[in-house]
User: Fold this.
Amino acid sequence: MVRLLRRKPPSPDTWAAIKDPEERLRAGLADLYQYFRGGADMLSNVYRDIDQLPAGRQHFLRDRDRGHADLLAEPFHISKAKRRVVRALIGHAVAFSTWHSVCHDQGLTDAEAIDALTAAILAASGASPLTVRRRGQ
Assistant:
């Protein structure tokens, strides 16, 4: 627990200043995944036992996670139908369980996971990944 408390927590205010949807998404996921990696052991226990935590703490964690996803979805200017799918995918991408599965269990680096999840989210939004296009030029 002490190690997790020493880690710099994610900084959603920094992401909020980024207007471009892809850049905000990448910045937010990088910030979250760095935090997840640094506190993986403790966070595994917290999320495994979330239903055993006091109700107030459960609500705080779930509201915080929803807030992260809402903030990362906000700059996408898309139809209501696409927004529903994009918001669900972003909610999945910001979940500790997703990071744990793709990075810890499946062996992706944080950067690989961010690239893959960002590409999926952008595809669902109808946009093409700017960073992927830049790399391919």
In short: The CA atoms of residues 103 and 109 lie 6 Å apart. The two ends are 45 Å apart (CA to CA).
